[in-house]
Amino acid sequence: MGKNKAKKVSLNEFSFTNDIDPAILSRIETGKQNIKLNILEKISKGFNKTPAEFLTEFENFKEN
Questions:
Q1: Is 43 exposed, middle or buried (0-12, 13-18, 19+ CB in 10 A)?
Q2: Global pTM?
Q3: 4 falls in which pLDDT band (50, 70, 90)?
Q4: Which end of the chain is more exposed for a tag (fewer CB within 10 A), N or C?
């Protein structure tokens, strides 16, 4: 989720734009909830990525 801050988009704005409950997005971001496939698809789409591309970039981001 660090990318949303880099693009200066708030969690609420991102969740509204991508039809995701902001509470769900917040719990995923803080590790309190696991991500479900339908939410992963919405998040990926919000970054103009496929789920596979998004997860690959996420893993690379975590390693750096």
A1: buried
A2: 0.79
A3: very low
A4: C
